[in-house]
Amino acid sequence: MNKKRKAVLLGTMITLALQTGSAYAEKVTEGVYENYVEFGVNEEDEYDEGRATISSKKDDVDVKDKEFTFKNGATIDSSKLYYINSKWDSQHSAGIINTTENNEITINLGNNEKKSKFNLITKTPDYTYWDFNSCVDNGGKININATNTDMNFSVRENENIEESKPNSAHIGILNGSEMNVIGDENKESNLYLEGQITNSSIYMMDSSKLNIKNLNNLKINDEYLNGQNSAIDIGGVLLGEDRSSMTLENINNIEIKPSSEIIDRGIEYGIYMGSGINSRVADVKIKDVEKFQIGDDIDIKENGQLESVADDKVRLVYGIRSDGSDFRIENVDKISINSVAAGIYMGSGYNSSVEDSSNKLKIDTNSIYINAIDKKLIDGDSISLVDRNHHTDGVALLSGYISTGYHLGADIDIEAENNIVFQGDNSAIVLHNMADEGNILKLNANNIVLTGDKEYGIYQWRSNPYEITAGKNISIFGALAGIRNTARYNVDNKIESDGNIEIVSDKYGVQGQSEDIDTEVLSNKDKFINNNNSYIANNDIKILGKDVGLYYKTTNSTEEFFTKEGDIYINGNNIAISSDSYSNMYPESGNLYDKHSTGEHLNLNIKAETGDVFIGDVQNESPINNQGIIFTGKDKFFIDGNKNVFIRSKNEAVEIDKLINGVIKGGEIKIISLEGEGIKSEGTNSLEIGYNKEDDKVTENIYIEGNIGVDLAVNNMGKDEREIGESDTNKTIINANNVDIIGKDYGIRISQDATDMRQERDNNIVDFANRWRNGVLAINAKENIDILATEGTAIDVNGVNKIAINNSYNNKVVGNKTGINLNLSTKIPLNLKEQIKEYKDNSVKAYIRDEYSGIEDSTWNGNLANSLRSELDEAVKKIGQEIGKEYEDFNAFYEDLFKNPIYQENPELVEVINKMNPEGDPLQEYVKATGILEAIGLDVNNLYEYTYGDYLIGIYIYANAECNSIEECYDKLVSEGKFEGINTNIDVENSFKLTTGVEGVNTIIGGEKALNADGQVNAVISGGSNVISNYVATPLDEDKEVEPTYAVKAQKEANVDITATNGSNIIQSTGTGIYATDENTIVNVKNETENKEKIIQDEANQIVTGEDVAINADNKATVNLTGKNAKNYISGTNSGVISDNQAKVIVEGSSIDIYSSEGTGILAQQTTNINTLDSQENESTTIDLRATDINITGGKYGVKASENSIINIKGGNVNIGAYSIERDGEGQHIAIVAGTNDEETNEKIGKVNVEIVGSGDNNITGDIIGGRSGEVKVENKGEGTLAVTGDILAGNGGAVDISFGNNSFFKGRVDDYQDAGKKADVENGFYDPHFTNGEVEEKGTVNIDLGEGTVWNVTGESWITSLDVNRATVDLLDHENDNSNYAINIGEISGDGRFIVNLDAENLKESQMIYIYGVKEGEEKLHQTVEIRNIDNVDKLLNGDLEKLRIATVNGGEEKIYFTGEDGTKKNKVMLRDTGVKNLAFYITNEEYNLKDKDNEEYNGSELGETKPGDEQVDNAYGDNGYNWFITRNPEYNPDPTPDPDPTPNPDPTPNPDPTPDPDPTPDPDPTPNPDPTPDPDDEVSEAGKTILNMAKANYDQAVYMDTLNERLGEARYIDGDEGMWVRMSHSSMGKEEAYKVTNNLYQIGYDKAHDDEKWKRRMGVGVDYIHGDTAYDNIWGKGETSRKGLEFYDTWISKKDGYYRDYVAKWGHLENEFDFMTKTNLEKVTGEYNNNVYSISGEWGNKYELENNWYFEPQGQLQYAYITGADYKTSQGTDVSVKEMDSLIARIGFRIGKDIGKEERKSTIYLKANVLHEFLGDQDVIASDATTADIGALKQSYDHSGTWYNIGIGISTMLSDNSYAYVDYERSFGNDNENTYKVNGGVRWTL
Q1: Do residues 1680 and 1597 lie in contact, with contact meaning Cβ atoms separated by under 8 Å?
Q2: How crowded is residue 352: how many other Cβ atoms within 10 Å of its Cβ?
Q3: What is the pTM of this model?
């Protein structure tokens, strides 16, 4: 400091000292200080006398308003100054002091140019507690205006202070004074308070005011030497009536961060100590602050948790404490409070004279963070200043009661735009109010985090309501409970978030527990507990407790959890939700609660409006929670998840007991228990799962899983239990589109023990009826219901229950052991209602009898008429005495009644007399007259049937006006408590219904039994379709006893109805499909489908299958399969249908399919009746099948009738077969068999009648056998066809008659065993008879009517009794084997037919033969057409080595039977087709049978065998009148009968060596014609030959195709750049008239490079192509394929000066050619293929002439030469083909005319084109040879492809960009045999 300045300061100080004359050594004078100044600072001795102050005091000489200006700052040290405060009798000192009431001190600080400092320094005084030093001491008004100034207020440490610790502070504002600290608008000033003080940093009392505004920082960082004080202490109203007030406004940063020494001074002082701000009956406003911090820094973790970053030194007990104050924090960006006991403690309203002393807190901030720790400070325990018993230390926000007093709490309203984070070592929020009605807590922020590390997130006691709302998320954690609500009276709490709510605890997530209930509370209905707690979120709600998620022991409480768009998660490691209200809360009060309660103990509502509800551990694979939901008592819960409700636990997922009303709704619902029950309900509960019809929503899926999915125990509830609510059922209702119930042991188990109370019923009907309960289960769905038991039974029902499973769509019931088990082991009598009525009657009668005491049994039960007569006898005796007459009895009186006038004097008696009928019974007439019985409701006409007791009962009812019947009297007497009432709502009918809509399917699957009905049960299975199946196979080991398996088993009078309303019934089993036994047991399987479209669509709609037996009816049981539209499919491995022991099986429908893979399709035996429709009652077993379509297939037998049985099958279309027709043993694979094993009988006792009346295709696959005394008759009466594949056999007197009808088919052999009696004479006999039983000892009969158009494919030598071949075909070819060398033997033939044969020109014994023994009587001139499919070694006939080849031997000449060729002409030509490149012509003729013909034995066989009848048998049958028919190559052949020698020389063999006729066969020795045979003019080119020739022509077309520049590159003038690439594709079709059509697809890619000069744009390039062509040949069943792989090089020149261009192309191509087709005669596939190459060169020229308006004309010319190589190949028929090489020269002239459009950079051209093309060469030769060309050597064909054709077309090219363009071209060709020939071409080119 310079000397001049020191002098000025020294002078000023002396002046001030003189002026004041006080203890101040230096006093700052009023004025403006331009430079920095220091007052009271002594550098040498900091504690020397002589400090300074700014003051205005009452005793000052210059008392006035004063103003001080320090432009560059100042330091004022008042640490040694003091003055005497007369009011408090204490010493005070301050740097700034104003003790005047009306004067102001104004201090202006700083400037805008640079930062300045203003320092106020003081020191803690040395003296008593009442001494007070401060930087500012204000009793009036002080204004500090700061500009760009740091204001540092400091209290120095005083080592000499006494134990009483006198007071020191930075700012003291007392006695209604006011202080304003105002910074500049830019907030460049700061206020720092730091030092060691014994009071508060800012201390206010007595209606004082403090305003601090417009600062950058306000920081309080003091060390408190007296732990009881606060950083800011705002005193209440002590001296005045106005409240103190403090305003902190427009400050960037407020930091209250002191350290404090904690001293345990007891409760009296402890409640005032250690706060950041302590307000008592004051107004506090903190406004427009960016950061407001009280206490140490807080580190905010990513999970929202807070962590103090301070050292171990405790800072504050309370961050903010308010009593009776209005505390407002507004527009603060961030609030951070870190304290020990409570972050914010809102005490009570303060007892003062101020009218409004209520406690209010209003905070408006961006974010607020509060951390409250629970430090071990004193004796290792928590702070003793708070009461741990009431959870008030380590609490972020505390309101209300602490250790003493009766406080009301506060109204707290905290709003944060962003975050509210409260964290307490013990609890986050404690609301502790003992009053009946408390103040409300409101929290509102974007995010709210409440954490109680050791106790609670929120602890509410008694009546402190809270309302917590968040824009985003709310997170609450409490170690003991996230939220604990312990309310006594009505409280409404709400937690609401637009985002998420998360409540987590180490014990209870939410704990709801009513305070203990006593009689006083219960009787005070106005204040009875009615708590409403709501948790509402827009997004997710999570409630997690390590013990219990939601835990309730409460009364009359409503809990609501609601989310609008999110999910709800509730879980507890032990239990997710637990309510134990009834059983655990009031063990001593009994029913006290129920007498006063108006509703449920707990009403729990959980709803996610658009999201999910998750209860239990739904995320971990192995859940950690034991149970999901447990309710006991009288509670109600409602759970609604719009999307999903997911309840999952280790043990019971949902358990309810006693009288619980539960509702679970959601879009999808999952209830899963891993080891317990999914749902366990015991008692008389009501549980509804899923939305119902009244809701406007639908539950899509419900999934329930557990060891038992749903377990309903309908127990015998005792009287005490019933008092909580009357209910007769334990009811569960499940509604959803889809329902899945899965259990390990049971899917659904319903147990009702009323059926086990028979003894009780007998002993005490009242107790029995009153304890009766029914189980009721209703499952309603619209799509799918799945019920599954993985190891046990899917649905198990014991007792009398009501089960209704209704679904619009599919039901699926699957049990590992049993699907559905319905068991009613004992019969429940159906007269229980009568028994109950009898009890009522007897009860009333007993009561009335007691009323008339003294009545003997004999009198009570005595006859009423006798009693009346006895009474009347006594009465009339008295009357007689009165009138002087003696009446012996009433009858005597009655006789005298009408005669004695004395009675007329009594008008009443006169009236009675007048009503009486003197002709009737006197007693009855008297009763009628008196009207007594009528009055009491008894019928006079039944007078003698009543007892005297009846009369008295009537009198009682008549006399009692409140009841008109015994029932009414009973109800009245019960209400009066005369006797115990009885339950009348007993339903003893046991019903099970499983239904779907018309589109639905019922699926029932069980491992051993799918549906088991045992006892008097009624099961209705009704669905659109029904599937019932079991899947555990029964072992085939006969020695092992195994429980058989069934799909449906019914016994002991069970009634099972299975109905399909719009689909199928499918019943299938690994054992028996349907098993019904015992009389009155009925199984009805019915299909009522009316939907024609579905009927047509389904192959079968009524299916019954069993791996053993499909249907087994036994012991008088009935099985019906019905439905007019039913398509029945019945399949069993061993049998399709078995009916035995008077049982019945009825089958009908539109179709019937019966199948057995190893046994019999239908088996009727013994006395069984199997009826399908209209079966007649008779002694025989009858099977009637009647349907539009009938199909029967068996493994061994399709249909078997034996032992006195008849099977009638009538259908529109019928198919019967054995599983296979392979010959693997006797008696196997028989389609139809009738007969018996009894060899003694000859009666027809086994019959099968098959009648076909439809128009479809019918089949019998397998053998048809008429066995011993059996008869099979098959008639096709309809317009359809019948195909029989199998042998037709009849022996041992059996018969088979078959009428095929028209256009039918038969494949097999026929045997009537005509040789049966000859077996002894013929060594080999016939081959294996393939018959059912034993040997064939005698012949049978087989009569076959083939019908017009029918084909018989003969598969072996056949013997047939009679054959009607009317316009039918007998095909002797075995199409599956090559050795078809057998014959057919026809006993009697009728009709004209056709025979197809294979012949052999070399091995005659291999050539087939036809033998016809006779013609049916009345038939003559029968014409049989012969077709030859193949002639082995045909060259023998073509070369003349064999002249003729025999085909048939018949009895009778041409007048009886005649064989013709296919054309029927005189030439009698027959063609051999499709055996090579030629079709060959042969001619049929005949000659007489010659016994001596040396070829006979070759044709007939040497002996009777498997292929031929044997020469001896043929000679015997045909030697006298037989004719041989044969074919020859010579159309003029005329057999000469003369060569047949006279039989006389036969004994003399001498002619044989020299047979004269033989030496002179002139043609034979000279074979000159053979080398050069002349082809038969009737021969023709075959389809194989045509295909070979056409493929060669198509090969030419592919090879020589001509390509133009325009087709290859489009508008080549668009080409630009040095390099380019192009791709193109084309599709073309080329047709040749009456020959073939080729369709080609070409794919080509190319590259070229520029070689330009001045005149030409020249491009040289290369391209590769691939062409694939398909060829279709006219009138041939086949196709050809040709592919080409090619390479080309081109050189293109385009003039730069004019439109001229030239294009040169060289090509090579490799062609691959193949064909395949099917011959029409033999259906043989013929193939061939070969490869060749083509080489070509081409030149093209043209010139583009520009015309007007961008039109142009471009003439073109082109010449192409091509060379195509030849090829040799062999076809699959053995034809050798040679295609010769050839040359082609094609010229083209044509033009394009078009128009260019567009701009230069985007040009396009469109054009028309026309061309004339001519082939100058094109000669092609093809040579083919095989066996069919043996007579001519080879087939040679030459083609001339030369000729002229034309094409026209249109095209367009357009530029896509500067370096690319695209083009499309289309053309059609005409002329030169072209037919429908066109090409479409397109491509893209671009410059590289």
Answers
A1: no
A2: 17
A3: 0.64
